[in-house]
Task: inverse folding
């Protein structure tokens, strides 16, 4: 369930098939990062968005593949990935800056502390987390740690254990194997909605570590361009469909940022 290497659709098979009926194939990439791509590699907000995009038009067929996060840059550079949703261009995309365009932000997400509700004593600031046993996601960068990616460096600085996804973070907290974790508020909102009984066991800290706005990155080789994709997302927003899959407090598409 927690493998980061799950492949939901083969890029090679999609390319070999050419167009899907009369539609042009648009290859969407993603990696396990809840709630956008869930730990099973076959569900999440991105999958829901793809279904909506295919539902409202008949020009493009959006197809999605899931792969390890570090492969996303090569997939776009090689023309295997046309679009990646809910991705910040500052997350390592600078070397490819001439090869893509960026839409307006779709969501705003905040990284928050989580602890067991029955023993929650949050540090006053993220600068004080060194006194806690932490659970973090391997390969993710955190503001409080200076966006350090090297796991060994983080282990030297913090009493930390590393897992693959946010579901595992909550499990480690609930079972007492770690004291404090970091999870994003959009994931927590959807998790609480679908797990109301378990949700009472997790408390959320008052101050976010980091908040960020996530657009879509569109390759210059993509059949659907930034402007066309913007129109499609506007249509979903106007029909109220985006609110079916994205919590209102996180959705900023079509808001003041436009």
Result:
């Amino acid at each position: 369930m927690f493998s980061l290497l799950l492949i939901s659709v083969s890029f090679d098979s999609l390319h070999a098939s050419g167009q899907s009926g009369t539609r042009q194939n648009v290859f969407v990439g993603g990696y396990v990062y809840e709630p956008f791509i869930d730990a099973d590699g076959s569900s999440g907000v991105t999958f829901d968005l793809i279904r909506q995009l295919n539902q409202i038009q008949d020009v493009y067929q959006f197809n999605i593949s899931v792969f390890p996060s570090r492969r996303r840059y090569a997939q776009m550079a090689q023309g295997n990935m046309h679009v990646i949703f809910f991705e910040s261009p500052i997350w390592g995309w600078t070397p490819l800056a001439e090869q893509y365009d960026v839409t307006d932000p779709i969501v705003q997400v905040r990284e928050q502390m989580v602890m067991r509700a029955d023993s929650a004593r949050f540090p006053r600031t993220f600068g004080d987390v060194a006194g806690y046993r932490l659970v973090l996601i391997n390969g993710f960068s955190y503001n409080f740690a200076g966006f350090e990616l090297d796991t060994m460096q983080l282990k030297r600085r913090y009493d930390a254990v590393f897992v693959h996804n946010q579901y595992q973070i909550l499990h480690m907290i609930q079972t007492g194997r770690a004291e404090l974790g970091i999870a994003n508020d959009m994931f927590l909102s959807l998790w609480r909605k679908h797990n109301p009984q378990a949700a009472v066991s997790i408390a959320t800290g008052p101050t976010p570590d980091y908040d960020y706005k996530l657009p879509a990155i569109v390759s210059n080789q993509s059949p659907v361009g930034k402007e066309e994709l913007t129109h499609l997302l506007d249509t979903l927003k106007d029909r109220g469909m985006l609110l079916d899959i994205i919590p209102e407090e996180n959705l900023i598409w079509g808001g003041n940022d436009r």
